């Protein structure tokens, strides 16, 4: 089953709403996103960079860390009543207008 962004935001809201603490403040949420981004960067560095994982370090995946970051992003959006669908549409409009000629396009029939 494919979930829409709205479905995902609702699912996160249902989860968070069961706790008295609710959503963290915007500042705390930014700190949590930064923390999760650091964990993602660490995993990327282990898998694709020059820094191997220590034998004592827990095995995690880039996919798991992306999921953690995405969850916090949805929490942040929900806490500020921001629709991620609307936010996504806004950024795609920007990329398709302001940045439409920024990159070299692949010509039809040309291999990537």
Automatic annotation (TrEMBL):
InterPro entries: MazG-like_dom, MazG-related_YpjD, YpjD/YvdC. Residues 24-103 form the NTP pyrophosphohydrolase MazG-like domain. CDD domains: NTP-PPase_BsYpjD (cd11531). Gene3D superfamilies: MazG-like (1.10.287.1080). It comes from the Bacteria. PANTHER family: NUCLEOTIDE PYROPHOSPHOHYDROLASE (PTHR42692:SF1). This is Nucleotide pyrophosphohydrolase. It comes from Fictibacillus fluitans.
């Amino acid at each position: 089953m494919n979930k829409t962004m709205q479905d995902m935001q609702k699912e996160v809201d249902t989860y968070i709403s069961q706790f008295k603490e609710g959503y963290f403040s915007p500042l705390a949420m930014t700190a949590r996103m930064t923390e999760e981004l650091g964990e993602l960067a660490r995993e990327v560095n282990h898998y694709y960079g020059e820094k191997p994982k220590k034998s004592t370090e827990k095995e995690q995946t880039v996919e798991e860390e992306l999921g953690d970051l995405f969850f916090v992003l949805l929490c942040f959006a929900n806490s500020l009543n921001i629709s991620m669908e609307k936010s996504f549409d806004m950024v795609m409009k920007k990329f398709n207008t302001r940045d439409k000629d920024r990159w070299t396009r692949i010509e039809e029939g040309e291999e990537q």
